[in-house]
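As promised in the previous annual report, we have extended the structural survey to additional targets. Below is the entry for Alpha/beta hydrolase.
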Amino acid sequence: MHRKWNLPRGLPLLAVLCLTGVLVGAPPVAAEEGGEPAAQLQWGPCPEDVPAEPPQLQCATMPVPLNYGDPGGAQIDLMISRLASTKPDKRRGVLLLNPGGPGGSGLGLSKLLATQEMPVDVLDSYDLIGMDTRGVGHSSPVSCGFTVGQPYFTNIPPYAADDAAVAEQAAVAQGVAAQCAANDHEGRLPHLTTANNARDLDRIRAALGEETASFLGYSYGTAVGAAYASMFPDRADRVVLDSNIGDTFLDQDGMRRYARGTEETFPDFARWAAVRHDSYGLGRTPEEVRATYFTLAEGLDKKPVDGIDGGLFRFSVFASLFNTKSYDLMAQTWQTQLAAVRAGSAGDPAAAEPPIDLEAVSPADNSLTVFLATTCNDVEWPEDVGAYQRAVAEDREQYPLFGAATANIVPCAYWKWGPVEPPVQIDDSGSADVLILQNQRDPVTPLRGGELLDEKFGERSRLVTADGSGHGVYVLGKNPCALNIATDYLVDGTMPEKDVACGSIPAGG
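The corresponding structure token record, generated without further manual editing, is:
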């Protein structure tokens, strides 16, 4: 029997679709030898579901090998977008973009960055190239056939109160892995990897007629960028990696760091709410706000409110920490839930979601599928349920806010194919061309991820930390120091001589 999962009101869609949050000497293939044929691109209007503004945004489709080990075999289509520089005298090349995931659509990312006031100098210097990576959206999409009624609606496993809850989730994870294998009718899932995403980037570069390409990637996009810079160091120009998962793949340790990020970021919300206690009544001090969190979580474990149980509550808080703009809605939701918990009621029945078709295909089906395939194909995950039970017990103590969720078992434990090749090893040779941007407090890609990637790149990278909260630094984060450093690098090639710590945004900034 399937359980219905009602998502909390205001839960960020990106978090639901792409949470993961999140490749060692891959064998050389034709695409890495420089002999690949350049596809002929025909630019035209983008699909209707891609943001139409600015009007100069164009899209094109190009073929790439499904399996780079057999480059002359089956092909799949990739859709890319272009926001072209309008200043030919200032244009220096192309800037490949990735929004993260894996599973996030990037066709409209250039439009988002432009509307978020990406510096004009960058827009003049580059054609911004967005894309749906293989398997995503308009790029030969894949599907595990997830439905609305399945007990699997996000790539973050549910909070596990004890060993029995981990064992229960193991059955769900095993079923999901089998479902994905059964629905892979065209044999595409085993070829969704970060290494292949990097190979696709180089095919795109060639199709655009460029000798080199620059790259800007967020979240999981940092894994793609790190892989591209490592596999194709002579073709990667200026690489900016923002909000880092710590390597060229997401593994169990990487997902468990989500709990660390939650612990590091939650105090920002707690301080914000404490200052506004007279408005929300969640606690007069950060410590009292934190205590309110546990009161709500434990109360909702016993009696859900408006369809939200303790597990969904914890997940919604984690997702709301992605952006400080979510704080007000989160605080309002806590108010309602706290009143219901204290009253011992289940909330307002009229506020419940209307009946839905539980057998309908989930709107998150494609993104969930791509995340699972890429993550499970990239690297080995533990197969022993006991290993996850021990991890959950450890993280429940170390990271009580969310650790018993992110350490829980995932379908990768039962994945049919993975890993399909060794993960890409970071190439730390060459001059400094990798700029790593990282908020000090980020719930899904905590500071440690940026530090790990910087350590692996060695002298080839510089780490810029921003005294900020949330997910995303460049353009999205508004820290002027980090913004200027990244812009100077992209436009002029000016790389900091050493790591930089940027202060907080000035009051009123």
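The two ends are 51 Å apart (CA to CA). The chain has a mean pLDDT of 90. These points will be discussed at the next consortium meeting with the crystallography subgroup.
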